[in-house]
DNA sequence: GTAGGGTTAG
């Protein structure tokens, strides 16, 4: 960086002697090096602070081609009493670099010195729109009127757009109606407003009233229809577009992804003449959003091998897909890619990484990432608290929660959800009640149905079934499937058939197709020997065509995911796996393990068949695979789509001891760390 | 030499 030294006295007296020379050089020079030399020269010769010189340099550094924001700022800082033009340039530069916060802050600084003009206002209004800062936007609107720029077309259009983006469609309309001279941009701004707030009929009406339309107008409308699920209508407009641009293709892809039409999305993706980063991001995020994690990761790989640089958005999508599949190795490689390419972890990417590591079962790495983030934000604290809770590490989660409060952070609703979830997985009833009340009374946060769900779950797991039932009856919202399921599971665990039946009936009203409901209900009857009721449930399931959701377990090895279902014989290592299973069975037997068949679902009659079913549970196959393939010293990580059954839980504990291996199992809601014959959940799950 | 409108992202 250049040092702005005091110019020598003699040169200062005759600054204009070299000014025209500097001016013409400035016009023709191309490299950053050259401009820096001229900049140095201007400082030496005392021309830097000449009225139009400084802003010329500033404009050069602020130019999108050079785009050295920090340097531009340092140049700006050196200007003595910068003219409005310089302020405008630097504010615009901040907007262009997605630093709207700083742009707005600079604008308020500017107000102490000068009066803004018709160049400043649209720019800073755009910044407010980006920040969703409606209050600042309104303030600046008032200021614009006060200083006499209320009728400037550019100012008005930017206001229409700002109000539209902030969801204040009525205010947008009011400014629009007050415009004397409307052009395409002002029409499009309002059209965007209607599209954004889902008023697509009004948008369509406006579209038809417009004196002119361009590809912007069509794209805005396409996006509006896409977002509210009317993909056919969007397609119609797209088909009629004379000049389809990249953005309209992207908007269509998003629309198809939103309506889960992967075939059409992919078709457009291949058809379009050119793609950009957003196109790829839309495909990746679209797949991820719909739970198509494998496809999302394949797209991500393809994007990289095409030589495109991913953005934050790309990485967010890829990391979420990794979390969904729990492919730790992939997550690690994305993490190192991020470090290598200088992606900051201070923002959502840090949150996403913490989430990824916890969901991949590596809570240690999640904690490491959390510790390395210098400026910890609420999202980071929340992510790690949620992660620790999932891993049954309630004490650590609660400790971090109080540390976070000490650091001056205001926890929000999700943070409390993490805390309550942690309490639930550790069976901390009183602590759970305490935080639930603290949230309401100390932080003024209205509990959502999820918060109630957590607390009710805590009560149910601990056997406080009456209290849970009372809470369900008295809570201000209609109980959902999750809540009735908690009550039902609690009733099964504590043998309360009455409350269990009540919960099951309510559950069937709310969500008649919940297969888990029938399974738990029949397990409950079976556990207490009510076999006639067991067959009734079986009949009901048959009549309604409900089948037990097939369980599967996955294990990743060397970047490949191996999936197993009950009694699976399709794997290439089947022979080895089954002989390992035999060995496991013998070792378990010699430890005196007696299979617990109480949770085996009905259709199997004899004890022997039931035991055989347990032995072939998908996670046992996955464990066998892990014992064969995962190098000793490394934990065996398994992902399940169902809850761990009683017998598998006992068996896995024993296996961790017998084979001296750490086994980490992720089920639908949490992690179990099996080690030395014990589980991190302390048998409470 | 400076200004307003569209796509991904919780």
* Structural class by sheet pairing and helices: mainly alpha
Helix count from the secondary structure assignment: 37
Global shape = elongated
Q: What is the β-strand count?
A: 6
Mean pLDDT: 89
Proportion of residues in β-strands: under 5%
Helix content: 55-70%
Rounded to the nearest angstrom, the distance between the terminal CA atoms is 60 Å
Radius of gyration, whole Å: 32 Å
Query: Largest beta sheet: what is the strand line-up?
Result: 2-1-3-4-5-6
Low-confidence stretches: 1-15
Largest sheet: 6 strands, mixed
Protein name: Pentatricopeptide repeat-containing protein At2g29760, chloroplastic
Pfam families: DYW_deaminase (PF14432), E_motif (PF20431), Eplus_motif (PF20430), PPR (PF01535), PPR_1 (PF12854), PPR_2 (PF13041)
InterPro entries: DYW_dom, E2_motif, E_motif, PPR_At4g14850-like_plant, PPR_rpt, TPR-like_helical_dom_sf
Family: Belongs to the PPR family. PCMP-H subfamily.
């Amino acid at each position: 960086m250049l040092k702005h030294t005091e110019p020598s006295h003699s040169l200062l007296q005759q600054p204009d002697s070299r000014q025209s020379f500097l001016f013409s050089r400035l016009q023709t020079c191309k490299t950053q090096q050259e401009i820096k030399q001229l900049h140095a020269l201007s400082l030496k010769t005392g021309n830097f602070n000449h009225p139009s010189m400084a802003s010329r340099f500033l404009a050069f550094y602020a130019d999108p081609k050079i785009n050295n924001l920090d340097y531009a700022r340092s140049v700006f800082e050196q200007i003595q009493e910068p003219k409005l033009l310089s302020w405008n340039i630097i504010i615009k530069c901040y907007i262009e670099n997605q630093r709207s916060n700083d742009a707005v802050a600079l604008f308020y600084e500017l107000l102490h010195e000068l009066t803004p003009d018709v160049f400043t206002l649209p720019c800073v209004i755009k910044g407010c729109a980006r920040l969703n800062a409606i209050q600042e936007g309104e303030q600046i609107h008032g200021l614009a009127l006060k200083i006499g720029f209320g009728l400037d077309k550019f100012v008005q259009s930017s206001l229409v757009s700002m109000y539209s983006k902030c969801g204040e469609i009525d205010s947008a309309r009011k400014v629009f109606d007050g415009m004397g001279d409307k052009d395409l941009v002002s029409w499009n701004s309002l059209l965007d407003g209607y599209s954004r707030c889902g008023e697509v009929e009004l948008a369509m009406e406006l579209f038809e009233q417009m004196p002119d339309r361009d590809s912007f107008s069509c794209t805005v409308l396409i996006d509006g229809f896409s977002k509210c699920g009317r993909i056919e209508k969007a397609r119609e407009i797209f088909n009629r577009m004379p000049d389809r641009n990249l953005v309209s293709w992207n908007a269509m892809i998003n629309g198809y992804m939103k309506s889960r039409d992967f075939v059409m999305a992919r078709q457009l993706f291949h058809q379009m003449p050119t793609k950009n980063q957003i196109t790829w991001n839309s495909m990746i995020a679209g797949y991820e959003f719909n739970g198509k994690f494998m496809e999302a990761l394949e797209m991500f790989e393809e994007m990289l091998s095409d030589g495109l640089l991913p953005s934050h958005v790309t990485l967010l999508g890829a990391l979420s897909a990794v979390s969904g599949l729990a492919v730790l190795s992939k997550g690690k490689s994305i993490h190192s890619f991020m470090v290598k390419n200088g992606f900051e972890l201070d923002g959502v990417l840090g949150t996403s990484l913490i989430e990824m590591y916890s969901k991949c079962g590596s809570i240690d790495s999640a904690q490491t990432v959390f510790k390395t983030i210098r400026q910890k934000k609420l999202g980071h604290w929340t992510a790690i608290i949620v992660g620790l809770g999932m891993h049954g590490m309630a004490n650590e989660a609660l400790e971090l929660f109080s540390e976070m409060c000490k650091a001056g952070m205001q926890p929000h609703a999700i943070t409390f959800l993490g805390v309550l979830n942690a309490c639930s997985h550790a069976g901390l009833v009183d602590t759970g009640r305490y935080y639930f009340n603290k949230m309401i009374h100390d932080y003024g946060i209205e509990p959502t149905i999820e918060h109630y769900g957590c607390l009710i779950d805590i009560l149910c797991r601990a056997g406080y079934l009456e209290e849970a039932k009372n809470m369900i009856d008295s809570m201000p919202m209609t109980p959902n499937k999750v809540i009735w399921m908690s009550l039902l599971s609690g009733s099964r665990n504590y043998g309360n058939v009455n409350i269990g039946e009540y919960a099951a009936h309510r559950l069937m009203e709310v969500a008649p197709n919940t297969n888990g409901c029938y399974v738990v209900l029949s397990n409950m009857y079976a556990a207490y020997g009510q076999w006639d009721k067991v067959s009734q449930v079986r009949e009901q399931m048959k009549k309604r065509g409900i089948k037990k959701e097939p369980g599967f377990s996955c294990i990743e090895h060397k970047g490949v995911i191996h999936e197993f279902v009950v009694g699976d014989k399709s794997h290439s290592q089947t022979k080895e796996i089954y002989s390992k299973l035999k060995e496991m069975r013998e070792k378990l037997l010699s430890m005196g393990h007696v299979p617990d068949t109480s949770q085996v679902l009905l259709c199997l009659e004899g004890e022997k068949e039931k035991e055989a079913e347990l032995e072939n549970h998908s996670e046992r196959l996955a464990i066998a695979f892990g014992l064969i393939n995962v190098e000793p010293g490394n934990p065996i990580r398994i992902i399940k789509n169902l809850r761990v059954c009683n017998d598998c839980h006992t068996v896995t504990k024993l296996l961790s001891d017998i084979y001296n291996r750490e086994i980490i199992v992720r089920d639908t809601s949490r992690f179990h760390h099996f080690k030395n014959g014990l589980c991190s959940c302390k048998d409470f799950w």
